[in-house]
Structures are given as structure tokens and as C-alpha cells.
């Protein structure tokens, strides 16, 4: 039996309702995934600093507009850290912004896989989580 990698989903959004809905959706369809919630980028970075492992796979659903550290600040700090080079973190920017500059800016980060519009559908959530499930 092959050793399975720990698989984590990190929800980074200042809307607690988003956390409740998506944690339930993810756990219902993918009970084997660990789901963690952060209400801003600073909490998410603290979580990664404490819990990050090269042996694990991470998918981060990142909102842009948040207090304390917003999505851009989170991305800039992640970019400066070497951990992103291990290719075990996949980031999806999830935003209600329709500003094309935001979408273009998000895509300028090589480790941002895609931008998704809120509200997220079950289909888009399945698309996002597929890399974790297929490993």
C-alpha cells in the first residue's frame, strides 16, 4: 500500500459564512481532506508557518479583499518564502471582484493556478480539489 500524502485545504476569507458552507461541502464530498479556515492572510501565514510540511499537499482558496493581510499581501509574502518552490501549494484566488486588473494581477503570480468568481459552485469546487483527489 502506498504512503498517502496529507492533503489540506486552506480557506482564507473574511466571511465566516463562506467557511461554514465550504467546509461542509468539502467534508461531505471529500471527507479525507483536512480543511482549515483563516479569516485573513496573517492567520493563514501563521497556520502555514506552524503546520507546513514538504510531505503534504495544500490547496488554498484565497480571497483578495480582507482585513489585516489581504490576498495580495499574502501572495507577496508567500512569493518571498522558499516553500512555494516545492510545488506542493496550489493557490486559487476566489473573488467577487470583476476588475480585470485584479484577475490579471492574480495571474502574474506563477503559483496562482486560477481565479474563481464568487459565489463558488459545487462544480468549481470539484475542479479546484481534483489535484488533491487524483494524487
UniProtKB/TrEMBL annotation:
Keywords: Phosphoprotein. One of its GO terms (biological process) is phosphorelay signal transduction system. It comes from the Bacteria. Residues 8-133 form the Response regulatory domain. Pfam families: Response_reg. InterPro entries: CheY-like_superfamily, Sig_transdc_resp-reg_receiver, TCS_response_regulator. The modification 4-aspartylphosphate is found at residue 63. PANTHER family: RESPONSE REGULATOR RCP1, RESPONSE REGULATOR RCP1-RELATED. This is Response regulator. It comes from Confluentibacter flavum.
Amino acid at each position: 500500500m502506498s504512503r498517502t500524502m496529507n492533503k489540506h485545504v486552506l480557506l482564507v476569507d473574511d466571511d465566516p459564512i463562506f467557511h461554514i458552507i465550504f467546509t461542509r461541502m468539502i467534508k461531505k464530498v471529500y471527507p479525507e481532506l483536512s480543511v482549515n479556515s483563516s479569516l485573513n492572510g496573517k492567520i493563514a501565514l501563521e497556520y502555514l508557518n506552524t503546520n507546513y510540511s514538504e510531505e503534504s499537499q495544500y490547496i488554498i482558496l484565497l480571497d483578495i479583499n480582507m482585513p489585516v493581510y489581504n490576498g495580495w499581501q499574502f501572495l507577496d509574502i508567500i512569493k518571498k518564502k522558499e516553500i512555494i518552490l516545492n510545488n506542493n501549494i496550489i493557490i486559487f484566488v476566489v473573488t467577487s471582484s470583476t476588475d480585470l486588473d485584479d484577475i490579471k494581477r492574480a495571474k502574474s503570480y506563477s503559483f496562482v493556478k486560477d481565479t474563481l468568481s464568487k459565489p463558488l459552485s459545487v462544480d468549481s469546487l470539484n475542479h479546484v480539489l481534483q489535484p488533491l483527489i487524483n494524487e
